Prior knowledge:
Strand content of chain B: 15-25%
Number of helices of chain A: 17
Number of strands of chain A: 9
Radius of gyration of chain A: 22 Å
Distance between the termini of chain B: 51 Å
Helix content of chain A: 40-55%
Strand order of the largest sheet of chain A: 6-5-9-7-8
Mean pLDDT of chain B: 94
CATH class of the largest domain in chain A: Alpha Beta
Low-confidence stretches of chain A: none
Largest interface: A-B, 30 and 28 residues
CATH topology of one domain in chain B: Rossmann fold
Structural class of chain A: alpha/beta
Mean pLDDT of chain A: 95
Largest sheet of chain A: 5 strands, mixed
Oligomer: heterodimer
CATH architecture of one domain in chain B: 3-Layer(aba) Sandwich
Largest sheet of chain B: 7 strands, mixed
CATH class of one domain in chain B: Alpha Beta
CATH superfamily of the largest domain in chain A: NADH-ubiquinone oxidoreductase 51kDa subunit
Number of domains of chain A: 3
Shape of chain B: globular
Strand content of chain A: 5-15%
CATH topology of the largest domain in chain A: Rossmann fold
Helix content of chain B: 25-40%
Distance between the termini of chain A: 35 Å
Number of strands of chain B: 31
Strand order of the largest sheet of chain B: 14-13-27-26-25-15-16
Amino acid sequence: MTRVKLVETPQVLFRNRRPNRIATLEEYRQSGGYEALVKVVGRWSPAEICRCIDESGLKGRGGAGFPASKKWMSVPADGAYPRYIAANADEMEPGTFKDRMLIHVDPHAVIEGMILAGYTISASKGYIFVRPSYESSAAILEQELENARRAGYLGENILGTDFSFDIVVHRSGGRYICGEATALLNALMGKRPNPIKPPPFPTVKGLWDRPTVVNNVETLANVPPILRNGPQWYRNLAETEGSAGTKLYCVSGRVNNPGCFELPMGTRFSEILERYAGGMAPGYAFKAFLPGGASTCFLTKAHYHVAMDFDAVAAAGSRLGTGAVIVFDDRTCLVAAVLNLTEFFARESCGWCTPCREGLPYLRDLLWRIEHGEGKEAFIPMLRSMCKHLWNAYCALAPGAATPVEGLLKHFEDEVREHIIQKRCPFKV
Amino acid sequence: MATGTLKINGQEVEVEKGSTILQAAEKAGIYVPVLCYHPLLPLEEACRICVVEDVRGDWSTLVAACVYPVRNGMVIQTDSPMVIEARKTIMELLLSDHPNDCMTCYATGSCELQDLAHIYQVKSTKYEGARHKYTVDSDPSPYLFIDMNKCILCRRCIRACHEIQGADIWTKVGRGFDQRISTAFGLPLAEAGCEDCGHCADFCPVDAIGYRVGRGEVRSWQLKGTATICLHCPSGCRAQYDTLKDKVVRVVGNAESPSNRGALCKAGRFNFNFINSPDRLRTAAMQNAQRELVPCSTDEALDAAAAALQKVRDSHGVNSIAVLCGSMLTNEEYYLAQKLARCALFTNHVDNASGAWQQAIHEAMSASLGFGAMPGSLQDIERAGAVLVMGSNTIEKHAMAAIRARKAARGGAPLIVVHPSPVPMTKTANMHLAIKAGSESALLQGLIKVILTEELYDKAFVEKCTQDFAKLERSVQKINLGDVAEKTGLSEEQIRDAGRLYASRRPACLVHGAEPLDNTANESFYRNCVNLQLLLGSVGVPGGTPCLMGFGGNGQGAGDFGALPKYLPGYRPVTSSPARKTAAKVWGVSPPDKPGMHCSKVFEAIERGEIKGLYLIGLNPLELVPNKKRLESALARLDVLVVQDCLSSELCEAAQVVLPAVTFVEKRGTATNCERRIQRLQPVLALQGDVRSDFDLINGLLGRLDGELQADSLESAFAEAGQLISDLNGLSHETIAPEGVQWPVGDGPAGAERIALPEGEKSKFKFAAVK
């Protein structure tokens, strides 16, 4: 039984959320689904669509928060054909499960968003890149793609226009690095998923050297409602000035009601924790949280009321990232938690460049020694210095991996030192 | 060319737009360390050692100099504290998983990692972290020694294997810290399809992939490296021979010559044991009265050889002696050998091992193109739109052409490989035509037929640049694809497909390498090669040429400098009276007018008793014939056999006089590769014992037979030959740069990369009727 907490704020992506089943094509349509497609395809120019999305203020939901319209517009007008859309459902950022929820709630939202993106950049093919452990999501998508095809929303001459577009579900080999846009493209082409440093950007030279837009599935799902209801409506959804729309927040940790909630962008952390996630579990007190997944910096009690939008979280010294809120309680050792994350990142490094390949195991070993009572005071500056050098890596994985370690040292240096002084983990009895 | 200006360490540098910071720094003479970067390989941007500080006003960032493009007005610091700290950290990280075995490591002294550790004074790591434990000497390869514990994952080996050899044996497996360099499925190199080119070892900055030879015996600083030209095959590769005292220890690539640009093949790199061999001839010998071979001084042997040859000449007549050369002599040596035959022994019986092929190539090219040699360059192959490879097992025998064909194929060019059996080239080919041995000529006719009848040829080129097209058309009518199919053992459909594929992307390159025991390559075969290329508009254009190679290391030079029975130097026919007169002016002696015989005919003449004296220069004829026994008994009938060679062989037993010569790596002089590139040889070893270069030995004989004919020096012999070879245009040794000169030599220093397209009606390229 999936627990669904009733949320009283406007539901856009989760408007068809039901316990234990996905929304059908009919239900999606009845809630306004595919209206945007009918409204736009064959009638609007790509520039008009981009302007609308631009005015809506939609920012990428995959973690970087890059304006969606800007990415689309960076496809050169004289770029070669065929062009491609890749929807990123690799979702391996620890603590993140919104893409999976979205696909299981309303798969057609993703599909319609992709078709619209395809129309905007004149793509003819789309790939949904699905994490292998999300086999059920892949199966749902395949089934619903077929339904969309039968309904004339997908395939040759969509809605009787000369626009043709089809979508393939690609099951990833399954590695964290595959979620990085350029590594994802390499994986799609059957190559080793190493990131490729831009320029050229994928929108200029992506899959098989053709212009390719890589969007997170949550970003894509936001496109149809914006085109249907207009940019101002979308901006009004947000809680804070300057941000737009709703956000899928995934809350985990020792809280009473962990889960994924669609809330106005900029909802305060305190409200998310207390009102929707049901507060801390009995016997546990709040200590810190990672606001946007494992590769973001810790925030503490000082940021308890931070508005959870891109700008406010950045101002607080972290990143909204994927919106995966990981809550830590007073009985959890943060050294052990960060060690756990660092082990993950060291394991998931592709090994391309020296800092990431050799530096992450270095961080991991230092943290392991501290956690297991073998730490020395000198390890703290060593950790700091190595974190700094990880920013000198080839792609964003290593800086991301360094971030929680930096956060640990920034806010909880005393807790780290306590391990060193006691020559044991103070949280272990 | 658009340029940009930047400041590196305060110094203003102007560079072309699109240059990297590294290129700009190089231009300014500022050192930036590199590890994964190599100028001959694609960029990787993996090691991060080359980071420099990009100062942007009040903030700055580190960027990788090897890839980062220059921005106009950019301010770069290459040695700021921020940069040094980052580099030191990279070094510490690399050394933290490195054995730091410098005491016993073969690379010590030539190790790039060690050099950087020294520059940045990184002793070892501050922190003992995880280390890998791989098997030392993990592969049974006879050539390579693999110790992946030393690997720093710069992946130059992978790029060299892919980019240069095109073999794709090495790859990266595993991820993160456990990434390692491996063959597919961890197979031993031999099973993984390794072609033993050794490029991976050449490019390894440490000693993770190193040479087996010399390991544990020599240290890098004991080695003296000298670059010279390899004469194993007609590619003319420039290679560096690392020597210790009187031995060659290893051979590594040298990037100065465009003929190989740092690449080498298995034979060029690893087949050098003959130089160090205990079978090297170090003293002269001659038969005593009891017909026993006894050692003597080289001068005594030369006296004896001269007397014996003179005796045969005087008693059996002028055409009773033949002078046959091997294929690893220098141009100057071929020149003296033919001068000796023609002016001192009065015979045109002078040839070289690949003379028959070289002469056929010359005659076919002259007849079709009015230009008597390969009309393009080896580099054309890699630019080709389509490539057809025939003849030898190219990757072994003519590797520089083969790896370029693969490069073209990687760029999308269809690659067709014609060989009776699967060879390494077939694995990268789009089409393998397993024809019956010796049916190449028939296949060419078939391809021409398909391209003509299906009108796949380049009509504009045929119209503008060629003549006698009707002759070709008429002759092709007689060709029946069914017959071709029967002769080649292919189906008609295969031949059609091959013709269509080869004609699908122009310009095209036809690569043919001759084999010593293959007699299909004659003038009409080579003319068909040109016919096919002319049809496809692929002669005299970048990326389009027939690439026709003999098998001898300096076969081209032998032909150019007159070691052919029908031609004086400069391909002046012996039958032409003006040609003989010109030669007589230079030599003071008029050469005989009757054409001589090629090697194979000479052997038959010896059998018939017509040839009584034979002077072999660096040639073992037993290696040239299918029936060794027969030739051995023929050689026994000779009155005089003079063997001049660097290695002792069974031939010495039958010789009256044995003259100890040296290998090509011990010589000075010049050699000419298949693309007409004249390059200079430098001795990499000092002479040992009473040996002399072939040049000095032949010159010694010349002096004894007719003092007037002797050359004063190598340079004067070259200059003298230049009087007869007009294509050299007065070229002298000193003006030949390390990259060589391609004849015909014009006024520029580089010579001619390829033949010019015809301008007048008369000079149009000629089709020939297919035979």
